[in-house]
């Protein structure tokens, strides 16, 4: 079961050309499909009769690839920054390297082979050589050569090598999945929406779609096979459907739906500067989850009262090396300054699981979500952790910073992480660097062991933020990325509600505040329950804030609290949903 703010505008057309998926980001988009899938790069080896012609073909493919990469590099530099553009400089270097290109041409002449064969065999030789080197930098070059070779080969075969950064007309991106760096490259001006084969509402492509405010449907299983490049498609991110080759009637229906949604947004926008107060006068905080400093503008536009989760891993992604202390400082300072004293909860690096960093060269794991990730990685790679903590501490004077550690499973981990933080603080003070005095230090509660022992944690932490995206998958033993077990991914299951309640009671018992930054916090069925359980802060995608505020203003906290015992003792998720619907209608 997926959650979302989707129980309005529930009408839809059931049709043959409709593919069902999971509603990942609200809104309706209508545009041509842009397939972001890798082309088939297999080819049949054929004898050649004119080596010069092959060399000419190779030169042409190299030249087109070069022009494309220049464009992508310029776009990336403009949209995401110099650091991210560097990766394409590395690709361009490969393309212009005579030590790489000359052997290809010699091979065509000497062995009488097609350009495709010469390219592939020469590249593979270099890839093998670099891959086996001890030096990490050189191993990275193997990946560059691999990427560039694919691009050139695609041009030799007359196939298009898709690049999100090259899109220059309005499109809907169709892909098997979108990695966070693919999503970061999407041009907000042209990409109207996207639809993917895999993923769920809490996969990072979905989370990014919501911060980019573009409609998205994920987990369709088959969209890449059902849509051809350039075909017209409609993405209904409200219901979670994709309509391929819409009829005139479909177009009319969805254009109206688009308009209704726009009007609904205007209604919500009226509450932008209003506090979040229930009908019986209780106030809660509505904060936003962000991935980059650029997301803050959207948070303020949507009436966010704080940042409840800044996912710092995006600073580490889409580049070839770790971000420096100064780069990080600039990013944290920018977020704190833009928020002008409103609370900003920054989560320390949560790498691992579905968030990989190729340059760290971590070994593959059988169960990455249960593996070497987040705080586990940071405590073993103290230098990486310390750099981030120093950057955060230095930035703390620019606003209202709170620091949060992810994936805490034991008290020892928290104590160890906090000790390192205090150690860095002392060091900075010794160096006469100003650091704020009042930085709260909290943890994400996303592992059942921590939710169960929240009482013990509450004595030592300043706050909790419940990470239900992971807490649900670990409690139900159902991978959040795996659509085959998505029926078990049940936010409203009484097991989850009892854990959440345990954390809230533990926090309040020690006068600590408790927030939730998992997607459940913005869900229209969960909100009344969480309000009744006493949650203090709800942190969600920026676009969910105004619908949530509208909903909360119509709810009585006291009334919802009176249902607490009944809800916690229910047997199934379905009973919970039915009950909440009945009581909030
Ligand atoms: C969570 O697990 O609920 C969470 C907010 O973190 P992430 O989605 O980044 O794992
Ligand atoms: Mg998590």
Describe this structure in words.
With 585 residues, the chain is an alpha/beta fold. 48% of the residues lie in helices and 13% in strands. It contains 24 helices and 16 strands. The protein has helices at residues 51-79, 82-95, 98-111, 115-131, 136-156, 180-185, 204-212, 223-226, 248-269, 296-301, 313-316, 325-338, 374-380, 382-395, 411-430, 448-452, 454-458, 468-476, 494-509, 526-533, 542-553, 557-562, 564-568, 573-584, and strands spanning 18-20, 22-25, 28-35, 171-175, 191-196, 216-218, 232-236, 241-244, 285-290, 307-311, 343-347, 400-405, 440-445, 463-466, 513-516, 537-540. The strands form two sheets. The chain has an eight-stranded mixed β-sheet with strand order 1-8-7-3-4-5-6-2. The chain has an eight-stranded parallel barrel with strand order 9-10-11-12-13-14-15-16, surrounded by four helices. α6 links the parallel β4 (171-175) and β5 (191-196). It is globular, with a radius of gyration of 26 Å. The model is unreliable at 1-13 (pLDDT under 50). It binds phosphoenolpyruvate and magnesium ion. The site of phosphoenolpyruvate (PEP) has 11 residues, from β10 and α18.
**What ions, cofactors and ligands are bound?**
phosphoenolpyruvate, magnesium ion
Strand tally is 16
Beta-strand portion reads: 5-15%
- Enumerate the strands of the largest sheet in spatial order, edge to edge or round the barrel: 1-8-7-3-4-5-6-2
**Global mean pLDDT:** 90
Largest sheet: 8 strands, mixed
Outline = globular
What integer value in Å does the Rg equal? Answer: 26 Å
- Classify the helix fraction into a percent range: 40-55%
Number of H/I helices: 24
Which class do the helix and strand fractions yield?
Answer: alpha/beta
